[in-house]
Amino acid sequence: MNVDIDHVRALMVEACRRSAVPAESVDLVVDHYLLGETQGKYSHGVAKFCFESQFFGERQGSPRTVRERGVLAIVDAQREIGPVSADHAVRIAADRARELGAGIVGMINTQRYGILSPWAEHLARAGFLGIVMNTSRADSTVEGARTPFLGVNPISYAVPTTGEPLVVDMSTTKSPMGVLWEARRGAAQLPAESFVDLDGDFTVDPHLAESAMVFGGHKGFAVSLLIQIMTGSLFGFPMGPGVESTWTTGYTFIAIDPSFGGELDDFPNNNARLVEVMEGVGTRDSQPFRIPGRRSRAHVRKVTALGKLDIPDSVYRRLRARAAGDFVSD
Q1: Spatial contact of 63 and 82, defined as CB atoms under 8 Å apart
Q2: What is the pLDDT of residues 37-54, one digit of tens each?
Q3: Domain that includes residue 84, residue range
Q4: What is the dihedral of CA 83, 89, 93, 96, to 10 degrees?
């Protein structure tokens, strides 16, 4: 159904009020999930807000740094709401990068957020190379295996250019787990060859699916494994089957200041020249070469101009329930 963006936002704000989100954090939380929706990342937009809002009241306090040495810092988020704790970690990473050339922040004991790209882009707009990643429970596996042993391990990175930052935001599974959750709620089929059952066979039945499939065969597995380590053992956080809950899930935020390596104005300029090269890449179908982040930005512009969101009836019902103070119905 088509719903005015302002109306959706008002319902989200009311849901935050009902769940005792601090007034100074409401806009940050609502805008984060609305951005995911307007980018077309529906599994990480309003539906994700409806799911995560049931935990907002579990926050215990503001994030605090519990250990730091050199470029590294570890943050105990104290079960803070995901977008709020991520904003905190990004700022710490940026501060350390300004002082030391790099900031590498590991965070644990936090609620989840939606898309990763806003945090990486925040760092890029400050002139840094920004990298953001997190793990999850062991919900993914590799082709040929039957046992899930990795988190879904998404990653986003961004660099400044002379225009908009160049931004990548991707899961290391073929489809995010949010797709599975929504398919179970709506009795929809899953994307082909994206999830496997208990025997390791591909399935499109959301009720038979047990694991998300890592992309790219053995090479994709290697990328996911690196993220697992960088969100886990690097900071002494649990990994794989050791991640037992939201509160033991690791998050990593990295800011790198190129000026410490001698690069000043040339960093965004060189990145912009690379983007120009990509813009000139020929394709077999004569369509423009797909540059990371541009499709999402175009979707935001289109939706914003229309002033409406196309939201499934079931998600809209859940959102209205949250705004009425019902954080249980699904």
Answers
A1: no
A2: 999 999 999 999 999 999
A3: 61-173+214-267
A4: 140
